[in-house]
C-alpha cells in the first residue's frame, strides 16, 4: 500500500514541480533580484532581447522610478532604455545607457538621440539616482525621471549592443529583435505593448518572405519539373507546356509582389541593408523578367535559331531557380524566425528533388526502351525511324 502511494505521489510531485517551473518562467521579471533597497510596484517582461522593465509611478508628481534589466549582446557590450516624447522610433529618444567603464566599474549616462547620432548629455527629463550594475550575465539600469504632469503613457525603446569603444557605445545589430524593440508603457495600468510600427514591419517581412518562398522557391522549380519530365510522355503533350507556362507566369506574378514588398521594406529601413539578400534579389528579378519577355521572342520549333533559344532558355531558367532557392534560405536567415520554418522549406525542396529524381529515372528508362524498340527489325527490315 505504501509503495502504491509512493508511485502515485511521484507523478503528482513532478507535475507540481513542472507547474511551479512554468509559473516562475511566466513571471520571471517579478523574481528578478534588484537589491533589498529597490522595490517597484510593477514589472513587465518585454517581448524582445530577454529584457524586463520595473517601475513605480506617482501620477500626481510625475515621478517615475525605473529599473531596466537585459543581457548585453556581448559581455563587454551595453544596454539601453529610452523614452521618446515625439515618436515611436529611435530618432528623438531620450536614453539611459549603461556599460562597463575603462576602469572596470559599471556606469550609466543620459544620451539624446537624433537620427543615428547618439550624444551624451542632458535629456528632456530631469534625471536623478542614475546607477548601473552587472551580475549574473545581465546589466541593470536604475534611475528616477521627472515626467510632465498628467503623463499616463510613454513610448519606450530598449536596446543592447556588442561593444564600447573610447567610452562610446558602438552600433547594435539589425536583427528583427533589435528592430522591433519599441512599444508603449501604460504607467497607470501597469502594462506594456509593442508598437504598431514594429508589428506592422514584422507583418510586412513575413508577407515578403512568404511570397518569395512560394514564387521563386516552389512554383518555379515545380514548373521546371513539368517541362523537363512530363513532355517525355506522349499523352501529356501539350498539357505539360500549359502546366509549365502557368506555373512560371503565376510564380513570376507572385514574385513581383514579393519584390514590391521588399522595396517597401527597404524604403522604411534607411541605413539597414542586407547586402547579400538584396544583390541576389536584384539579379534574380532581372533574369526572371528577361526570361518572361523572351517568351515573346520564342522561334518556331523548326526555326534555325530555335536551338540557340533553347540553350538560352534552359541556362537562364536554371539560374533563376538556383538563385531563388538560395535567396529563400538567405531571407530565412535574415528574418531569424523559428527554425521549424527553415526545416519546413528544406522538406518542401527535398520533396521536389525526390520527385525530380524519380522522374529522371523513369524518363531515362522510357528513352532507353524507345531506343531499343526503334532499333528492332520489322519483317527483317530495320525500323525506318531508328537512324
Report on the structure:
The chain has a seven-stranded antiparallel beta sheet with strand order 7-6-5-4-10-13-14. Helix 3 runs antiparallel to helix 4 (239-268) and helix 3 packs parallel to helix 7. With 387 residues, it is an alpha+beta fold. The chain starts with a helix and ends in a 5-residue tail after the last strand. The protein is built from seven helices and 16 strands. The model is unreliable at 1-27 and 381-387 (pLDDT under 50). The chain has helices at residues 2-26, 176-179, 196-229, 239-268, 275-294, 306-335, 339-374, and strands spanning 42-45, 52-58, 63-70, 78-84, 94-100, 106-114, 117-120, 126-135, 138-146, 153-161, 164-165, 168-169, 182-186, 191-194, 377-378, 381-382.
